[in-house]
Specification:
The chain has 16 helices and 10 strands. With 441 residues, the chain is of the alpha+beta class. Strands 2-3-8-5-7-6 form a 6-stranded mixed β-barrel. A hairpin with a 2-residue loop joins strand 6 and strand 7.
């Protein structure tokens, strides 16, 4: 132990006696570690931001939208007998109950009814969408309440005149007062506001690219409220019969064929790897329930799933490459400076070996010098990397995520680089001939 301690003290004195050289040697490690931590923080923040945008659509979701059955064939005269078509009740709540009851690996099901309408309050009017949903919708869409509460069981069963509004609706109609407990006219009915959703920051470009609407301008009400008070296409009324009969007279070739009770149905699956399998089972179930009438369209975020995987792979590859290159440059710098140091201290090496130092002592001395420089550079690099990440986050408004894992990895690699790149100069120093070294000028 005395020998190791003595070699350590010799190495420490050598580092401190040549401060400028030590600092220049450690600059590569300092900036390498700082670059790794900063890039990992920025990259992780960017990755999370991208994946959060993908989650707006949902990577574990199956989206079912109703369509009118497509017809194909020759044009026939009115006198000719038309082919009989299978009856379908359309996409409705019975389908929702069947999916919940029959299909496994389904976390939640969210039916929707969307109505384009106007919102009116105190002389102000704004076009918006009234969306009939259940509470599972907010969970699937990752919504959070800013204030108030969601619908309770009584309100959903009895079709109460209540609503939850988006942040933009609150800013438009309740800018100077609290919205909770107030009433707002949506279409032809007054609804009581019981909750306000947190603002979801979505740019117009993102809305266009992701194919989603501006959720901040939506008004949400229980499904039963929409079906009882606004619109239920599954009911056959005299108005609908007359409209269907006179459709050809008013606008030839245009008919109101939308008989679906629901406008959209979202199914959240337990895992992304189960999406395709569940989608196939749902397709068969709906086709059987609709008597082989394909009046629905099932879409799964397959492209989003691939994009999610590709995004992770790209970020991991880029960040790994940056980390490797940065620390490689730092290691090469250590090796070059240490080799130059060996050439400068040949006489010192010969003197130590002539008074009893062994080869392993010389190797240990130069190796400890490299490790000291690496450790010091690693600590300073960690501090600099954290500072750079914070500055970038504040000034450029880019989210950064500094993890303990990235700090441990970068620091550990820095020490490892010091060891690996310090071995060659240490061995070269130990292999010097003491007699030749003492004569060296």
């Amino acid at each position: 132990m005395k020998r190791y301690y003595f070699n350590f003290s010799v190495a420490l004195k050598a580092v401190l006696s040549n401060k400028l050289r030590s600092i220049l040697t450690g600059l590569g490690i300092i900036f390498g570690v700082a670059a790794v931590i900063a890039m990992l923080a920025i990259g992780s923040g960017a990755q999370r931001e991208i994946l959060d945008q993908i989650k707006l659509v949902g990577v574990n979701n199956i989206v079912i939208t109703p369509i009118v059955e497509q017809e194909e064939g020759e044009v026939k005269e009115n006198s000719q007998k038309q082919d009989e078509k299978n009856f379908s009740a359309g996409l409705n709540m019975h389908d929702v109950n069947s999916i919940k009851r029959v299909i496994p690996n389904v976390a939640s099901v969210s039916p929707e009814i969307v109505i384009d309408t106007d919102v009116i309050r105190i002389g102000r009017k704004r076009s918006a969408k009234l969306v009939g949903v259940s509470n599972s919708y907010f969970k699937i869409a990752n919504f959070s309440l800013a204030e108030g509460k969601l619908f309770n069981n009584y309100q959903m069963e009895k079709g109460e005149s209540v609503c939850v509004i988006g942040s933009a609706v609150k800013a438009k109609f309740f800018s100077q007062e609290k919205a909770l407990g107030k009433r707002i006219k949506v279409g032809s009915h007054w609804l009581k506001v019981i909750g306000v959703l947190e603002q979801r920051f979505i740019s117009k470009k993102e809305i266009s690219n992701l194919g989603i609407r501006d959720y901040n301008m939506d008004v949400y009400s229980p499904l039963s409220t929409i079906l009882l008070r606004y619109r239920n296409r599954s009911l056959v009324t005299n108005t609908r019969i007359q409209r269907a009969l006179h459709a050809d007279e008013d606008e030839p070739g245009i008919k109101d064929n939308n008989y679906h009770q629901l406008d959209r149905l979202t199914i959240q699956v337990d895992g992304s790897h189960q999406v395709k399998g569940v989608a196939q089972v749902v397709s068969k179930l709906l086709k059987r329930r609709h008597f082989n009438t394909v009046d629905f369209e099932i879409s799964i975020p397959e492209l989003l799933l691939k994009q999610q995987q590709r995004t992770k792979s790209i970020f991991n590859f880029v960040l790994g490459a940056i980390a490797g290159i940065s620390l490689l440059v730092g290691g090469i710098g250590i090796m070059n400076i240490m080799l130059a140091s060996v050439m400068e201290r040949i006489k010192e090496i010969g003197l130590r070996m002539s008074i009893g130092a062994k080869k392993q002592d010389i190797v240990l001395q130069f190796l400890l010098e490299a490790v000291m420089i690496s450790i010091t550079g690693g600590v300073l690099g960690v501090i600099l990397g954290v500072a750079i990440s914070s500055i970038v986050s504040i000034t450029a408004q880019i989210p950064t995520i500094i993890s303990g894992f990235s700090i441990i990895i970068s620091f550990g690699v820095a020490v490892l680089v010091g060891v690996l790149f310090g071995i060659t100069p240490a061995r070269q120093a130990a292999n010097q001939d003491p007699i030749v070294s003492l004569r060296h000028e």
